[in-house]
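Progress report, Aim 2. The chain analyzed during this reporting quarter is listed below.
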Amino acid sequence: MAVLDKAYRVWIGDKEVSRLANKLERPYFSLYERDLYGISPDRKLWRYNLDDDVLHYIAQLPVRARCVSDVNGEQALLTYMMQLNRELVSFSVQ
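Predicted C-alpha cells for the chain:
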C-alpha cells in the first residue's frame, strides 16, 4: 500500500520513498499494478516502479494538467483545470 502524508511524502509501509521527494504538484498519485504515476511541479508526467526503485519521466504536460486520476494499462486519465473566461458586454437600455 502506498500512502501520501500532508507534506506530500510517499510512504510504502513504514519506509519513505525518498526518490519521490518534491515530485508531486498536488497531493495525488495513481497506482497501477506496481507503478505509481504522478505529475511533478514542472508538469512532467512520471512513473515510479515500486520493485526496482526507478523513476521514469513519460511526457511534458501543459500548464493546466493537475493530477493523474486513473491509470489502466497503457491509458491514463488526467485531470486538467480549464480557465474560465469572463467577458464584459456593453448594451443600451432604451
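The mean pLDDT is 81. The two ends are 67 Å apart (CA to CA). These observations will guide the mutagenesis work planned for the next reporting period.
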